[in-house]
Design brief:
mainly alpha
Length: 140
């Protein structure tokens, strides 16, 4: 049944299956050609899973809350970048804030896990987003 619903989307768009009125293509819109920000989604998953691991290992509710909050913001930022590559501001603010907070924690503790890892990943994300900002000039 599931394959039957997806079959019209697997067939090429110039076939008669997609051009018939009343088929399942009316329910499922055609897939767009947007670029997916896989790095951003991976970064969001790293943050959220880090908060969950902090909760499981140490029972830290603030770690879980911060991980889910910042992971959700990073995921939303990756979604925005996937829809419009110029819309980097949520991702940049999230990764910039985490770079500062986790960098300060790493500087104070000198422990790579978890503060050093999160600060390093966040710094790399800020660099990636800064390069994307510099390569695509904003229209005014």
């Amino acid at each position: 049944m599931f394959l039957y619903l997806l079959l019209p989307h697997i067939v090429l768009s110039n076939s008669t299956v997609l051009q018939q009125p009343g088929n399942s293509s009316d329910i499922f819109p055609p897939v767009s050609n947007m670029t997916v920000d896989w790095v951003g989604y991976g970064y969001a998953a790293l943050i959220a899973s880090g908060g969950a691991i902090g909760y499981v290992k140490a029972g830290s509710v603030p770690s879980l809350a911060a991980g889910l909050l910042f992971g959700g913001l990073a995921g939303f930022g990756a979604y925005q970048i996937s829809n419009d590559p110029k819309n980097i501001w949520v991702s940049l603010a999230t990764s910039g804030a985490l770079t500062g907070v986790m960098g300060k924690r790493f500087y104070g503790s000198r422990k790579f896990m978890p503060a050093g890892l999160m600060a390093g990943a966040s710094l790399l994300m800020v660099g990636k987003l800064s390069l994307a900002l510099l390569q695509k000039p904003q229209e005014s």
